[in-house]
Write the structure tokens for this entry.
Amino acid sequence: MEKTLIILKPSTIQRALIGQVIDRFQKKGLTVAGCKMMQLDEQILREHYAHLVDRPFFPSLLRSMQATPVIVMALAGKDVVAVVRAMTGATNSRAAAPGTIRGDFGMSGQENIIHASDSVENAEIELRRFFKPEEIFDYEPLTISAIYSPDELASA
Ligand code: IDP
Ligand code: MG
């Protein structure tokens, strides 16, 4: 099954929204394949946000992502990378559509609740960045046959 990385950002920890955010993914039918809390350091953030290191807001983003520990999660499901990005919404929470996580829970471009991998290729890289192989689990929940049709499962 395809997997993606999400990070519950420090503002989500501070605002006690962990449960509500995870609840959305579970209700959608996605499987939690990995989950842990960690304190991010500057080195991993410079790697993870390499496309942004030259932007003026980067120092602020670094501080924000280190304000508290974060929760990193691996989610599994058919087409999960695209599904989770759609559920996440636009980067700026004020522009994110209602019904998306950022659209429903945030008011900021920086403090935008979660990170979600933006492509299958990046999901693989990012999962390796934040998890050891043995921290990601391949198991099938008992509900799986009520979530997908047999042909969807066979091609997942
Ligand atoms: P994404 O999280 O929607 O994939 P990216 O462009 O990859 O968006 O940016 C990574 C993170 O950097 C964002 O989630 C947000 O926290 C922060 N960020 C992006 N653009 C801005 C900005 O213009 N101002 C402040 N923070 C920003
Ligand atoms: Mg991004």
User: Anything to note?
Assistant: The chain has a mean pLDDT of 98. The chain has one domain: 2-154. Residues 118 surround magnesium ion (ligand 2) (CB under 6 Å).
